[in-house]
Amino acid sequence: MHNLSTIMFNEFDAKYSQSIPEYINATNDCHTNPIHAPEETEKAQLVNVVVPVRMKLAKDLIYWQGLPSLVSSDEDIRHFAFYILFKCLSRDSHKLDMYTKILACRSSDEC
């Protein structure tokens, strides 16, 4: 999943972003930012993120608010919304891939 989302992001980035400054920090706008989980494998292995993430999800509703931008009549707004969506998907799928591997490693005691 991570590989496909990264490919989608890279293709979209190459075609539409053209190094526009607003696009550089797009992950600041990800709706999953409130879920704090390390993005580096070494840090993730040292932290037990399952309980804090479950508590965060149970406590606060986290939802995506970008649909109006995706259907905007302004093409630049639509492009930026898709850019954010693909960038966040790529980042979050990387985390999912990494944490799945850590879980598999821990469950088999082969870490």
UniProtKB/TrEMBL annotation:
Lineage: Eukaryota, Metazoa, Chordata, Craniata, Vertebrata
Name assigned to this protein: Uncharacterized protein
Annotated Gene Ontology cellular component terms: extracellular space
Pfam families linked to this entry: Hormone_1
PROSITE patterns tied to this protein: SOMATOTROPIN_2
Principal place of residence: secreted
Signal sequence extent: none
Lineage: superkingdom: Eukaryota
One annotated GO biological process: mammary gland development
Record-linked InterPro entries: 4_helix_cytokine-like_core, Somatotropin/Prolactin, Somatotropin_CS
GO MF annotation list: hormone activity; metal ion binding; prolactin receptor binding
Subcellular location(s) of the protein: Secreted
Family note: Belongs to the somatotropin/prolactin family.
Organism per entry: Cervus hanglu yarkandensis
Keywords: Disulfide bond, Hormone, Metal-binding, Secreted, Zinc
Positions contributing to Zn(2+) binding: 97
